[in-house]
């Protein structure tokens, strides 16, 4: 290990080109942290919001909360993780780099059977899909659920988890190719976005879906309210098309006494037990061959701007990874 490493840094907010490859000091783990040599870093939508300044960050800014790799050093208080162990996390900072540090409690063990790519691709989108369908609205076999961006990272994993539960899945995607992916992942019905509420009502005998998991936001939210059954739940968990503008709560009454929530992963990883429950269910399913992790593209760290461009272009399916 050397004192310096390659890392991405943005000096200001802006488009993908602000993401520049630089030399940076290799970080040192604090007393309760571990240092990880990055095998692969996951690219997530949140980093595009941070890059643009929609979510404020300090500059120079090195993005990245997700990654997998090998532990190369541990802080003095760390007993749960050892040097040489393979770990993955969705809760690091500055993981667009050759090395990153993370709290030992948030470094999750990677089974031997899992590849580095799957280990880096699974944490953030997998844990999100898991909390959405197991906790935010606890799906049962008798439920009908709608999921937006169904061939995407979270969407594709969520379809598979929902089908394991036995629920009926209505997938929304924007192209025929993406629709085919959603079908292959197990969706019962696949629709486009236009007037989807009417079609969801037709598919549910006029009743509406029990739950809508909406990550597209601005362009889908109104339809989501219309597509949900009386006393159903709308889970707004992202804004890929833009953030939903301020909302008059009275509309929930007019829409059928709906429940509306805007969750974040951090609120569903409250302690070690909860993190381990979600991660172990996911990795057990991957190792058993019941959950497919799809990597939609790999990029050298120097091409991080291209990875952001591709993610925002709406053309990708599955997870994008940076390989330092
Ligand atoms: P995806 O792989 O799903 O990529 C985004 C997808 O959004 C696109 O492929 C596209 O699918 C859809 N989309 C719709 N409109 C647009 C648009 N105008 N521009 C770009 N994409 C659009 O990404 P992720 O799986 O990483 O994330 C999905 C969403 O989930 C994001 O909004 C993200 O912020 C959110 N998220 C939320 C978390 C939470 O805890 N709240 C945690 C993790 C992710 P299509 O063409 O089929 O519509």
TrEMBL record:
Keywords: NADP, Oxidoreductase. This is Quinone oxidoreductase. It comes from Kocuria atrinae. Residues 10-32 are annotated as: Disordered. InterPro entries: ADH-like_C, ADH-like_N, ER, GroES-like_sf, NAD(P)-bd_dom_sf, QOR-like. It holds the Pfam family ADH_zinc_N. It comes from the Bacteria. SUPFAM superfamilies: GroES-like, NAD(P)-binding Rossmann-fold domains. Residues 14-322 form the Enoyl reductase (ER) domain.
């Amino acid at each position: 290990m050397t004192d310096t490493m390659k890392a991405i840094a943005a000096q200001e907010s802006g488009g993908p080109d602000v993401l520049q490859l630089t030399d940076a000091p290799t970080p040192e783990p604090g007393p309760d942290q571990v240092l990880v040599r990055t095998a692969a870093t996951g690219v997530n939508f949140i980093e595009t919001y941070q890059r643009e300044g929609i979510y404020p960050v300090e500059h120079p800014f090195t993005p990245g909360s997700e990654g997998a790799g090998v532990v190369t050093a541990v802080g003095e208080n760390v007993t749960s993780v050892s040097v040489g162990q393979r770990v993955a996390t969705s809760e690091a900072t500055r993981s667009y780099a050759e090395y990153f540090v993370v709290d030992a409690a948030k470094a999750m063990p990677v089974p031997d059977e899992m590849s580095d790519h799957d280990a880096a691709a699974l944490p953030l989108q997998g844990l999100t899909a898991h909390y959405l369908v197991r906790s935010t609205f606890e799906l049962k076999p008798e439920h009908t659920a709608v999921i937006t961006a169904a061939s995407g990272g979270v969407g594709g994993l969520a379809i598979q988890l929902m089908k394991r539960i036995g629920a009926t899945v209505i997938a929304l995607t924007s192209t025929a190719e993406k629709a085919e992916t959603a079908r292959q992942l197990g969706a019962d019905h696949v629709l486009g976005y236009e007037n989807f509420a009417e079609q969801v009502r037709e598919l549910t005998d006029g009743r509406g879906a029990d739950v809508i998991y909406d990550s597209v936001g601005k362009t889908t939210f109104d339809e989501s309210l219309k597509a949900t059954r009386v006393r159903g739940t709308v889970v707004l968990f992202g804004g890929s098309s833009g953030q939903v503008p301020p909302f008059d709560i009275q509309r929930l009454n007019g829409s059928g006494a709906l429940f509306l929530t805007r969750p974040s992963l951090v609120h569903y990883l409250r302690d070690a037990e909860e993190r381990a429950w979600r991660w172990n269910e996911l990795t057990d399913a991957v190792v058993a061959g019941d959950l497919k992790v799809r990597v939609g593209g790999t990029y050298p760290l120097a091409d991080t701007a291209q990875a952001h461009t591709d993610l925002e272009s709406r053309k990708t399916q599955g997870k994008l990874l940076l390989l330092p």
